[in-house]
Amino acid sequence: MHYRLITALLLIGAAWLTAAPAQATRIKDLATIEGVRENQLMGYGLVIGLSGTGDDITKSVFTKQAIINMTKRMGVALTADVYKQMKTKNIAAVMVTAQLPPFARPGSAIDIQVSSLGDASSLSGGTLLMTPLKGPDNSTYAVAQGPLAVGGISFGGKAAKAQKNFATSGRVSGGAIVERAVDYALPPTGDVIYQLRETDFTTAARMVEAINRRFGVGTAQPVDSGTVKVARPKQFPGDMVTFIADLEGIEVAPDGPAKIVVNERTGTIVMGQDVRIATVAVSHGNLNLVITESTQVSQPNPLAQGTTTQTPATTIKAVEDTGNLVVLPMGVNLGDIARALNAIGATPRDLIAIFQAIKAAGALQGELVIL
Whole-model pTM? Predict the structure, then answer.
């Protein structure tokens, strides 16, 4: 085991000496303009043309009521007895959701997501009927309709069923037509307010420095850790689109807090590049409990009066692996530590236990988040 420990230490030392510098990112990937955002839309509709995989309208009352309302609007007048005897399985009630992009104009097409609301087993082969999509203000901003593209299949009977992916949800590419635009326009004069996707004072300061270096001192000013105010320079009179396009292409090296996130249920570890540790020695040995259950049978002698008895017996055996003492030098990040400890056979769950112990020892310079 000694050569494996030496290999792990060499890997840590090599990674420490060859640490990669921070990568630059465009401003358009770091921040968004205040007010320029998507808006959520939602609507209730019906999907028709299903092959017996729709809602059971004797149980899904809202589906039956929607069918009645639709037939009345289409001028089909049926008696109450006909509505009571209705048992169609080719229709399903669905909820339709969409994202209205910024600057979308009437006539633009947007994608929609259709999800079953009742007990339909599959939406494959269905067609969405005309469905108004409304915003939080209850105003209609788009109208959706079209054939569904479902990425799953589901079929079977009472005894068996086969399913791949999910067949109760689908999409319609360009299935909604925008009928009303959201009132927003870029300011022809004045300041443009940028909001950082991940708030950080260092990132905001670097963004201001990069913008001022490109357009002149005083063009950008930091407001707080998540907001940067940018004034339109004189060389772009009235041309805000060209100025923003030029502005978004500036590259900035983002920064953020040192953080490591672990999920003990799934053994998942996600760590940031900037997480560092102080000099610490780690020894980790696995403790395995082997529990075996057996049944002991006691049977009476021949011709003897008695009954056969069964007594359960449980055997517990504890096996502890030999712990390996690894000295980790100061300044190494946890990514290098994970690769080095994997080289000596540590599993993700072992790494989680080691990181928790390092944090408890006060040697971890960063936030440990346990899900």
Answer: 0.67
